[in-house]
């Protein structure tokens, strides 16, 4: 029999290093803090506003994604499908959606892991999580307000980690990758969508300047794959569209 949403929250609590209190339908480890780490720019600050979550899934994220991915990159729906496929989610799996926003990926993962699985949506913005909770979804979904860089989960507790359109906004992306690897079980899978700077110098300068203005780090092509390889990931794949890259791999 499928679990209730409260049961999903209880299951999530058992995976945490420190127990969390339920607040407005999600677990909260940040309390009164506005965010977990230092602000990195205007794009990150927008995520905490009241208006953006209301238009995020339908307008903001698809429009911004299309601008960054260009005409040949996947749609947002295509990203969800691709992420689910690359993570090879199965019934009973535990999936972690880092910087989940309003929960579109998390809900899809909840459906993929079935009634015996768990899909965790983690974000630092109260407004995003409030919208995510309000959207409903499978009873296997549970949301957590916590630090996305220093994940509060116990080691080797999840089968899959997804982080789309967020790593480049973290103040410490390499620390975040360490944390992602730590919480994954051996053989677990990861998929990331982040920035990818062009190798052509004139365009590279423009892209770098855009990153500085928006507070987003511009990674080089192949940089994330190399970082995953250094952390013991294998079966690494990468695909590029515009100034974005989608990188996936298996731990061990």
TrEMBL record:
Listed Pfam families: Methyltransf_11 (PF08241)
Any GO BP: methylation
Top-level taxon of the source organism: Bacteria
GO MF term list: S-adenosylmethionine-dependent methyltransferase activity
Domain Methyltransferase type: 96-192
Methyltransferase is among the record's keywords: yes
Keywords from the UniProt entry: Methyltransferase, Transferase
InterPro entries reported for this sequence: Methyltransf_11, SAM-dependent_MTases_sf
The keyword Methyltransferase is annotated on this UniProt entry: yes
PANTHER family named in the record: METHYLTRANSFERASE, OS06G0646000 PROTEIN
Protein name: Methyltransferase domain-containing protein
């Amino acid at each position: 029999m499928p679990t209730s949403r409260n049961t999903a929250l209880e299951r999530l609590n058992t995976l945490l290093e420190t127990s969390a209190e339920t607040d407005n339908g999600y677990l909260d480890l940040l309390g009164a803090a506005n965010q977990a780490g230092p602000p990195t720019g205007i794009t990150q600050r927008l995520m905490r506003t009241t208006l953006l979550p209301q238009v995020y899934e339908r307008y903001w994220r698809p429009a911004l994604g299309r601008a960054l991915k260009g005409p040949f990159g996947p749609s947002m729906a295509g990203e969800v499908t691709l992420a689910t496929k690359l993570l090879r989610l199965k019934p009973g799996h535990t999936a972690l959606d880092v910087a989940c926003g309003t929960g579109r990926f998390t809900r899809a993962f909840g459906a993929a892991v079935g009634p015996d699985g768990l899909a965790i949506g983690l974000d630092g913005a109260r407004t995003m999580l409030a919208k995510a909770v309000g959207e409903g979804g499978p009873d296997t979904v549970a949301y957590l307000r916590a630090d996305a860089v220093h994940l509060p989960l116990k080691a080797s507790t999840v089968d899959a980690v997804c982080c789309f359109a967020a790593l480049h906004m973290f103040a410490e992306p390499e620390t975040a990758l360490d944390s992602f690897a730590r919480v994954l079980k051996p053989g677990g899978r990861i998929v990331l969508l982040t920035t990818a700077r062009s190798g052509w110098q004139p365009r590279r300068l423009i892209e770098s300047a855009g990153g500085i203005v928006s507070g987003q780090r511009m990674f080089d092509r192949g940089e994330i794959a190399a970082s995953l390889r250094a952390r013991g990931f294998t079966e690494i794949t990468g695909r590029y569209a515009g100034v974005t890259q989608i990188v996936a791999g298996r731990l061990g």
